[in-house]
Task: inverse folding
C-alpha cells in the first residue's frame, strides 16, 4: 500500500491576526479539522482520492464559516450563486457547475455530472434541473443565507465595488474551499467550491468552475485547487499551468506552484493561493496574501491546520 | 513592419464530400473568404490582431451557414444558447460568455466584457443584462433560428442523443467558428464562438467559453482557437496545452498542435481540430475528423479556404 495525502483550503486573502478573536480562530481550526477528518476517514480505509476530496469539500460547504454552500456570500441582487468543479486524475474526467442557487452541495452535483451526464459543464437553472433528475438535496435561499454575509453585502451594496476592489480588510478575502488528495492506489483528485464574491453582478463566474483554472488533476503529475482573484486565475489557466510546468518543464511541485503564486499571478496583478499534491503524496500550499485557511493530513500521521503565514 | 497572419475555422467533423453539393461547397468557400477579408482589411492597414479576430468571427456569426450567432443550433427546448470567448495575447486579458440567447454577436459581448467589465466570464441573463448596459445589438429568437437547424433538432429531439453521439453523418459536425491572428505589431489574439450542440440540455457549456480550453492567446507563444467535442477539450485544457508544450517543452507550434490533435485528444476518446498562429506568424490547422471548414491569409499574399483533408 502506498501512502495517502489530503490538503484542504478555506480561502486566501487579507486575514489579519489583529482582526481575529481567539474564539473565532478556534472555530476556523475546528472546521478545518472536521473537513480533514471527513477525507482522512475515507483515505485511511483505502478509499478513493475522489471520495475524499468530495467529502472534505462537503464538510466545508456545510459549515457557515466558509464562502461555499451554506454561508455563501450575497450577489448584488441579494441572492446566492454558487460555482464548483471536481476532477478525477485517473481518467481526467471532470464535472463543473456555475451559477446554481438551490443545490445544497454543489460539489456533489459536479460529481453527478462527471459520472452520470454526457456533459462536463452545466450552468444556472439547467444545472439545477439536472440536479433534480439525480435527486440531489435542494435547499431554499434561507438555508444559504447568514447574517454575517448579509452585513458584508450591506457595506458595499450601493457602491459599484465588489469584494475585489475595496479597502475593507475584513472583506478582502477570497472565499473558496477546496481539497486535493492522493490515495493509497496512487490516484489523484481535486475539488473546489465557492459562493463567489460579495455584491457580484451579471452572473459573474470565477475560476472555481473552470477546469484548468480553479481545479485540475492528472495522475502521475498533480492535483490542484486554487483560491484567489478568480479573473487572474482564469487568464493564467492557473491550475493547469502548475501541472504543465511539471509535465513539460520538469519542475517539481514546489517549484511550479511557487512560480505561479509568487511570479505569474502577481506579475499579472492578481493575488491568492493554491493547494496541490503530487504523485508521491507531497503537498504544497503557497499563497501571496496575508493568510489562507488551510490544513493537511498524511498517512504518516502528520497533520496540521493553519491560518496565517 | 512585421508580417501578419490570420487563420479561421467554421467547425470540424464529419463533413463528407459525397454529402456536399457543388453549390453548397461554393457557399461555404464564399463565407470563409468573406470572414478572411473582414480580418485582412484590418491587419493590412496595421490594425490589431484583436480587432481582426473579432471582425472575422462576427462575419461568421452573421452567416447562417455556421453554428454561431445567426444559424445557431437548437437546444432540446427549442431555444438557442450561445457561448464565446476572446483573448488578447498582449496582456492575456480575456472575456467570455455562456448561455446567452439574445445577443446578436456574442464575440462582441466578450470584447466588451474584456475591456469594460471587472470580470472575465459572465453567463446567461446576467451576461445579457451587461450587454444591454453596453448597448450591444440584441435580437429576438427568430433572428437566430433557421429551418436547417430546426430540421436537425427534429431528427434527434425525442431521443436522448445530442449531436455528440449519433450515427447521422450530416449531424456529426462540431459547429464552432474561430479566428487567430498575428498583427504587424507582433501581437496575437484568438476568438471562438458557437451555438453548441443540437438537442443540448441542462444549459450545457462546452469548451468555447473556457479560456484555456477553447481559446488562448499569449504574445511570444501562440494564439489558439479550438473546434471539437467540447467535453474532451475542457478536460484536456486543449488551447493552453498547445501553448504550454511550446512554453515549457520547447515544441514548435506544429509539433504541439499535432500532439494535441493526433495524440492527446484521440487517446482520451474525443475528436476535432484547432487553428493556431505563433509569434512568427506561422499557421497550423490540424484536425482528426473528415473535414474542417478553414482558411488563412498572410501578408505575403498567400491565402486559401479549405473544407476537406
Result:
Amino acid at each position: 500500500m502506498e501512502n495517502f495525502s489530503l490538503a484542504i483550503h478555506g480561502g486566501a486573502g487579507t486575514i489579519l491576526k489583529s482582526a481575529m478573536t481567539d474564539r473565532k480562530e478556534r472555530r476556523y481550526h475546528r472546521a478545518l479539522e472536521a473537513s480533514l477528518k471527513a477525507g482522512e476517514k475515507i483515505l485511511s480505509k483505502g478509499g478513493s482520492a475522489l471520495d475524499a476530496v468530495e467529502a472534505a469539500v462537503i464538510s466545508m460547504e456545510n459549515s457557515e464559516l466558509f464562502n461555499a454552500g451554506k454561508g455563501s456570500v450575497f450577489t448584488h441582487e441579494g441572492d446566492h450563486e454558487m460555482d464548483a468543479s471536481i476532477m478525477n486524475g485517473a481518467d481526467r474526467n471532470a464535472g463543473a457547475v456555475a451559477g446554481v442557487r438551490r443545490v445544497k452541495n454543489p460539489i456533489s452535483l459536479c460529481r453527478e455530472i462527471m459520472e452520470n451526464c454526457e456533459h462536463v459543464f452545466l450552468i444556472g437553472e439547467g444545472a439545477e434541473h439536472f440536479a433534480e433528475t439525480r435527486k440531489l438535496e435542494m435547499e431554499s435561499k434561507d438555508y444559504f443565507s447568514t447574517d454575517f454575509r448579509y452585513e458584508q453585502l450591506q457595506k458595499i451594496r450601493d457602491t459599484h465595488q465588489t469584494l475585489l476592489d475595496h479597502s475593507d480588510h475584513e472583506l478582502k478575502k477570497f472565499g473558496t474551499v477546496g481539497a486535493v488528495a492522493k490515495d493509497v492506489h496512487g490516484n489523484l483528485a481535486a475539488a473546489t467550491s465557492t459562493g463567489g464574491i460579495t455584491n457580484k453582478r451579471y452572473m459573474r463566474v470565477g475560476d472555481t468552475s473552470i477546469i484548468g483554472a480553479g481545479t485540475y488533476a492528472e495522475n502521475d503529475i498533480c492535483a490542484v485547487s486554487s483560491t484567489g482573484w478568480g479573473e487572474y486565475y482564469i487568464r493564467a489557466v492557473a491550475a493547469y499551468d502548475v501541472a504543465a510546468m511539471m509535465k513539460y518543464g520538469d519542475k517539481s511541485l514546489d517549484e511550479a506552484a511557487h512560480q505561479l503564486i509568487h511570479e505569474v499571478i502577481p506579475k499579472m496583478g492578481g493575488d491568492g493561493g493554491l493547494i496541490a499534491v503530487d504523485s508521491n503524496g507531497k503537498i504544497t500550499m503557497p499563497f501571496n496574501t496575508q493568510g489562507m485557511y488551510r490544513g493537511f493530513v498524511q498517512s504518516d500521521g502528520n497533520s496540521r491546520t493553519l491560518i496565517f503565514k
Remarks:
- Residues 5-81+142-308 of chain B form a domain with the Glutamine Phosphoribosylpyrophosphate, subunit 1, domain 1 fold (CATH 3.60.20.30).
- The radius of gyration of chain B is 17 Å.
